[in-house]
Amino acid sequence: MPRLGTLEAAVMDVLWSADGPLTVRGVLDRMPAKRNLAYTTVMTVLTNLHRKGMADREPAGRAFSYRPTLTRQGAAAASLREILDASDDPQSVLLHFAETATEEESAVLRDALARRESES
Question: What value does the mean pLDDT of the chain take?
Answer without folding.
Answer: 94
